Amino acid sequence: MRLLYTPFSPFSRKVIVAAYEKGVHGQIDIVLTDVGTHVPLETEVHDRLSRTTPLMKIPVLIDGDLTLFDSRVIAEYLDGLSENPRLLPEGGRARWLALKQQAIADGIMEAAILCRFEITRAPSRWPEWERSQKRRIIQAVDALDAQFTKQSPHIDIGAISAACALGYLDFRFDDLNWRKGRPALAAWFENVESRPSMQATRPSAAAS
């Protein structure tokens, strides 16, 4: 298997963490991929990427003649490659809670990435739009705070997604200080962040 990824993408990290937790990371060749973020849309980079994924988004998993994109789809595929622990509970309330948590965390990552793009557009930034994205982030972190109040040795796709979202806020938006007023969530994150899968995928502070 090959995974096309970018090193500072929280969605890429989410998929790689999932692979570690399932014990299949050693079966994946992780390929650093240029997505042409800082170049015009009509370039060779984008043409090449579009031949793999029509959305031109990372991550992309290639397994033989099967090509999958979107971190949610890839994570579910990886979940089926080995036995327990299950990242997606098979049914019942636990499954829907995990999927809900994943949706909230994915929303945080999407809004944060959009903010990052807006910040790098300086001086032509749109402050009102940027504030609206940050509002989404704060409200979503509050939603996670209401759910992740207990320590647990088990980790599912909701927890993985939440941890990667909060880790991305630490990496790019430490000014938001998401831990303030959320001691339970901060304690939960500290516990999850110590896992080998999270330590192995932590983005470098020296990144641009």
Which terms summarize this structure?
4 strands; 2 domains; 8% strand; 8 helices; single chain; 208 residues; Glutathione S-transferase Yfyf (Class Pi), Chain A, domain 2; globular; four-stranded mixed β-sheet; alpha+beta; Glutaredoxin
What does this protein look like?
The protein has 208 residues and is α+β, with helices and mostly antiparallel strands. Helix 1 runs parallel beside helix 3. The longest helix has 28 residues, at 92-119. The protein has helices at 10-22, 44-50, 71-79, 92-119, 127-145, 157-172, 183-193, 196-200; strands at residues 2-5, 29-32, 60-63, 66-69. Strands 2-1-3-4 form a 4-stranded mixed β-sheet, with helices on one face. The chain contains 8 helices and 4 strands, in the order βαβαββαααααα. It is globular and about 45 Å long. It is 52% helix and 8% strand. The chain has 2 domains: 2-79, Glutaredoxin (3-Layer(aba) Sandwich), CATH 3.40.30; 92-195, Up-down Bundle (Glutathione S-transferase Yfyf (Class Pi), Chain A, domain 2), CATH 1.20.1050. The mean pLDDT is 88. The two termini are 29 Å apart.
